[in-house]
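Final paragraph of the annual report: two paired records, presented back to back.
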Amino acid sequence: MSTLETNLVQPSTGTSLTLGASGDTITIPSGATIANSGTATGFGGTNTPAFRAINSSGQNLSGDGTTFTKVQLDTEQYDTASAYDNSSNYRFTVPSGQAGKYFISAQIGVSCNQDHRQVHGSVYKNGSGLGDMVGRILLKDATFNDGEQVLTITGVLDLSVGDYLELYGRGYDTTGGGTVSFTAGNSSLQGFKIIE
């Protein structure tokens, strides 16, 4: 192997310089540093697909504390792969070629015009609740009158192509006569694929 020692390599004509040919491997040895002062393209990866959807209006739900209701997240704030359905199923579906680990977070805002004591939320995968993607607010010794409680759920999920995620929640009205609802704009589901 020959060694070329020089302090500067420039193209003899034009402005493009090619190192190696198709199929070649260019090795940067351990301890070496690549210092970039220009624009780097084609390196690393991007955290996509990425999406975020919120609910644009309030949504009444059962106040029995046992019935989970899907949050109708009907407004997309971004959806890089057009993989979120905001019109009918309110779900994110992993697109073709995009299996992998995803960071997912969700927020649920629930209010009641009477006393309410608890809010539960869960991210569902393929129609079933995930045990490691649940959240709960529980006021054991007091009720929370005529106000809103907000909970947040986060986690990392290993998803396959075609897997879909939805957000469900429930609340508990201690009086039995109040109106329990997801409050407008305070519930969301968002996520992005992690670069591996």
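The closing record of the year follows.
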Amino acid sequence: MNKKYIILTGAGGFLGSFYTKELSKFFKVIALDVNKKSLQKLKKIKNVMTFYLDVCKENEIKNLFNYLKSKKIVVYGLINNATIDSVPNLKSKNKYPNLETWDIELNVGLKGAYLMTKYFGEKMRKNKKGTIINIGSDLSVIAPNQKIYKKAYGKFIKPVTYSVIKHGLYGMTKYFSSLYAESGVNVNMLSPGSIYNNHKKTFLYELNKLIPMKRMGKKKDLTSSLMLLLDENNNYMTGQNIIVDGGRTII
């Protein structure tokens, strides 16, 4: 049986590269990123096509759309994963990002998802088949707890931009799920809680106290939920924010 095509933005990042490897076992993955070095690593994976692409630039998205159309490639799934996250460190202390930073981060996280949906989501609507997954965060429904950052990273403050992006992405999810509902296209959001990535022990200790399961997530904890949202038999779930966070947001 021929494998379906999935487009993944931000494919070269921490979670993006994991998603690429996992999805390539079941789909043909069209991996997009602006990091050429990361794309080179992904090229070695079977069933993966890589493209250097800036999701903020509509002309680049349009060119990819037309290229895939010329190759008669039908895209079944779109995963909007591209974002700029502020990783905890000892240097970032500004609770008010400058406007340049604001524009850059919102362009990648929100405008990029909008533009990808404009082209590939609309094509799915016309084909009356497909699924769109926006990658959110537990910060799509809660605010960051700045106390856990303070104890581990001093004066670091999780910036407002990330919360705005993830809350806004859920609004976009609901909007397009309603718009495409009668066309056989499901639009949902997968929102991971904190996923372990060599965090400081102090941070782990403080965060785990807030999580009912008493541990940070692992990358593999996301696979089954991602596959559920991509399952073509799962065709009556749309507009949902699937939060995979060990129960943190329920308290």
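The first strand starts at residue 5 and ends at 8. This concludes the annual technical report; the extension proposal builds directly on these records.
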